[in-house]
# Entry
Amino acid sequence: MRFSLSALLLLLCLAASAQEQRPLRFSVTESWAMPMISIVDGQVRGGILYDLQMRLAQKVGRRAEMLVLPRLRVQRLLATGGIDVRCYVNPDWLGEAHHQYIWSLPFMLQRDVIVARVAEPNFTLEQLRGERLGTVLGFSYPRLEPLLASGEIHREDVRTQALALEKLEAGRYRYAISNDLSLN
# Structure
């Protein structure tokens, strides 16, 4: 999947009065994991996206404010002006209209992968039929959507990527979805 950096309102921030010192507010989804972002006690502490967001704020001469939010609240805050920039999002993931977004060119390639408790040579999607699949609440999995919508695969949503993998390890289900960066 290709990811786009949503530079929503970034141009407006550039055009804003030089006297305005309000921080540039970035949304950070609490479900993200390292190496993308490190969240400790509700605060962003590091990661690829942290570095990116800090650099973007620096480029426009503003202080970065990172708002850690549940994934499903991000769009509402964006629409009401509660956040200025949303990074690490793909247009294919959005069920709602995103006509107000200003998209950058994709800058990173990442894949979602199906992880099994036990290695299964020659794995096929057919093996998922009837299974519960560890997923992250609010995440969209476009390639699996037809199987999920038909009920052939059942989602078991959790709040974060790390929790999905912990439940997989504990044997709560046989398969989960993770991104390849978090696994490696």
In short: Confidence is low (pLDDT under 50) at residues 1-19. The first helix runs from residue 10 to 15. DSSP finds six helices and eleven strands in the chain. Residues 83 and 140 are 22 Å apart (CA to CA).
